[in-house]
């Protein structure tokens, strides 16, 4: 902060910031409404500007603005002065009238309250009216000339220099996921050793800290992707199938107002040691800033089967396939929940939005957990959850009873894991319904489809889940088939009202692993 230029810069940024933070304002709009046939008073709105009233000594004119006599009239014009029309807080050029002109016209800019331009500035009486001669250009003293002409020009020059300096400084400032502007691929120093296929890419990302690719490489990859088609829409934006060097990738595009969500999800994916076969593989994050708007990309592996929700909707499954889906999804959840100790360790993470739409089905019929946008990590040293959060998150239909009634203890990280397990129990129920044995199966349905509306409110869910303590129905046929019987037992033990009584993710995974081994023996 010793550098005077830097101090000047911060001062200017402060002024700019105050200017940016100005609130929206309503003003009277009356464009020449006192001219014959002029428009009546209306209202205009300016987000960060001023209300303005202008008074002008004029000659009588017709509705086209043509002078019709020498008779003097006073005209009043009221309007909004928008941000782009002035230069710096309090120094709007449009609001400035030379002292010498104030007998001909005057302007008043205000922003203290809505419609403050009902007040009109005064005109200075003409010199003739004061008994003297009307002022003319020849009355201006050299000092006044300096004040009227030279000062505004100097102010403009200074402001331009500061703006250029600020702009250059902003461009150079390092930002998350914003390495230096567009790298020419061939001149990028990393390119010589850069991966050319997804497989190489994974080997690369594992070789460092185990938390993903260097940012420069992430950006280069992002800039080489061609978007092909939309494959999904979710809470924040669109998910596209893209193509990188002939291979499919998924690109989740966040609108710029969701920068925090994008940043958070990219951050969670890059947690050290998170990479796991049952967690969606992260490739890169990039923010493309074209000067006026920013597009935020999150690039991951692409799975043509789409979500578990899509998959189960499309088809029924065999018991083997059911166990495979359930076991691998449980594997993903168990890995998320597990804390790995050591220098290269991983914190425990809770997902907080587990549901069939946030689990993807890979080509080999296994699952991976996606959409980590709401996930929270646990710092076991301080025993703190890593972000401020609210218990009212996630998808209402899948919310655990303690989240619905607000009784969840958010200081206690274990609570979040238990809420995940409840949601996972509902996913197990969705999977089991599609298991076809002897040609018998249930149609695909979302949990509680029969007791709440399609977009249930918190109140709807609270009544059913907390009040009536209802849970999805277990069909009778499940009791006659070993794998479905185990699934039924597991889900019931996931959705106890008492969260402490629920199974852990590890227990679920182990039970399903046992079931998978039995299935393998049958084959
Ligand atoms: P949101 O955070 O907006 O809910 P998601 O990450 O859950 O976004 O993605 C929304 C949908 O897009 C998913 O339910 C799924 O259908 C599809 N989708 C997301 N990622 C992939 C992917 N990697 N491969 C295939 N489909 C995907
Ligand atoms: Mg989602």
Automatic annotation (TrEMBL):
Q: What is its EC number?
A: 2.7.11.30
Q: How does it sit in the membrane?
A: Single-pass type I membrane protein
Q: Which gene is this protein's source?
A: LOC101862362
Which family does the entry's similarity section mention? Belongs to the protein kinase superfamily. TKL Ser/Thr protein kinase family. TGFB receptor subfamily.
Residue span, GS domain: 196-224
Cofactor section: Mg(2+); Mn(2+)
* Top EC group: transferase
Annotated binding of ATP, by residue: 252
Signal sequence interval, chain numbering:
1-24
User: What InterPro entries does this protein's entry cite?
Assistant: Activin_recp (IPR000472), GS_dom (IPR003605), Kinase-like_dom_sf (IPR011009), Prot_kinase_dom (IPR000719), Protein_kinase_ATP_BS (IPR017441), Ser-Thr/Tyr_kinase_cat_dom (IPR001245), Ser/Thr_kinase_AS (IPR008271), Snake_toxin-like_sf (IPR045860)
Q: Which residues cross the membrane?
A: 145-168
Q: What is the lineage of its organism?
A: Eukaryota, Metazoa, Spiralia, Lophotrochozoa, Mollusca
Name listed for the protein in its UniProt record:
receptor protein serine/threonine kinase
Record carries keyword Magnesium: yes
Where is this protein localized, as stated in its record?
Membrane
What are the entry keywords? ATP-binding, Kinase, Magnesium, Membrane, Metal-binding, Nucleotide-binding, Receptor, Serine/threonine-protein kinase, Signal, Transferase, Transmembrane, Transmembrane helix
- List the SUPFAM superfamilies: Protein kinase-like (PK-like) (SSF56112)
Residues in Protein kinase domain copies: 225-515
């Amino acid at each position: 902060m010793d550098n005077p230029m830097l101090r000047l810069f911060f001062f200017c940024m402060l002024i700019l910031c105050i200017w940016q933070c100005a609130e929206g304002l309503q003003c009277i709009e009356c464009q020449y409404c006192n001219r014959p046939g002029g428009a009546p008073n209306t209202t205009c709105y300016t987000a960060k500007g001023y209300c303005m009233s202008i008074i002008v000594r004029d000659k009588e004119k017709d509705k086209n603005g043509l002078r019709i006599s020498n008779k003097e009239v006073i005209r009043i014009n009221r309007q909004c002065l928008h941000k782009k029309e002035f230069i710096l807080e309090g120094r709007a050029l449009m609001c400035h009238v030379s002292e010498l002109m104030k007998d001909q016209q005057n302007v008043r800019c205000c922003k203290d309250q809505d419609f403050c331009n009902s007040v009109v500035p005064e005109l200075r009486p003409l010199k003739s009216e004061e008994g003297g001669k009307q002022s003319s250009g020849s009355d201006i003293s050299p000092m006044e000339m300096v004040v009227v002409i030279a000062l505004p020009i100097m102010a403009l020059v200074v402001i331009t220099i500061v703006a250029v300096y600020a702009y250059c400084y902003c461009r150079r400032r390092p930002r998350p996921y914003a390495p230096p502007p567009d790298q020419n691929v061939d001149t990028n120093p990393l390119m010589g050793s850069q991966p050319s296929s997804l497989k190489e890419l994974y080997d690369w990302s594992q070789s460092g800290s185990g938390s993903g690719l260097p940012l420069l490489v992430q950006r280069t990859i992002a800039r080489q992707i061609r978007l092909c088609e939309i494959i999904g829409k979710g809470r924040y934006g669109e998910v596209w199938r893209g193509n990188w060097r002939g291979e499919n990738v998924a690109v989740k595009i966040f609108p710029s107002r969701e920068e925090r969500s994008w940043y958070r999800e990219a951050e969670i994916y890059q947690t050290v040691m998170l990479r796991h076969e049952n967690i969606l593989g992260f490739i890169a994050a990039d923010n493309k800033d074209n000067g006026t708007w920013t597009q935020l990309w999150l690039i991951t592996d692409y799975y043509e089967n789409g979500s578990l929700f899509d998959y189960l909707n499309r088809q029924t499954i065999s018991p083997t396939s059911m166990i495979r889906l359930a076991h691998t999804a449980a594997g993903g959840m168990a890995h998320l929940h597990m804390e790995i100790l050591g220098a290269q360790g991983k914190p425990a993470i809770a997902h907080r939005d587990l549901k069939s739409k946030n689990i993807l089905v890979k080509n080999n019929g296994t699952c991976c957990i996606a959409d980590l946008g709401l996930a929270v990590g646990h710092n076991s040293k301080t025993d703190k959850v890593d972000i401020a959060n609210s218990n009212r998150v996630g998808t209402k239909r899948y919310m655990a009873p303690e989240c619905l009634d607000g009784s969840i203890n958010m200081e206690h990280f274990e609570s979040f894991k238990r809420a995940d397990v409840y949601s996972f129990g509902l996913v197990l129920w969705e999977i089991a319904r599609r298991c076809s044995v002897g040609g018998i199966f249930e149609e695909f349905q979302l949990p509680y489809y029969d007791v709440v509306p399609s977009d249930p409110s918190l109140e709807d869910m609270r009544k059913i889940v907390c009040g009536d303590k209802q849970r999805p129905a277990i069909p009778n046929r499940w009791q006659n088939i070993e794998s479905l019987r185990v699934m039924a037992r597991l889900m019931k033990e996931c959705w106890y009202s008492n969260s402490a009584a629920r199974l852990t993710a590890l227990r679920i995974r182990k039970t399903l692993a046992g079931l998978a081994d039995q299935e393998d023996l049958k084959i």
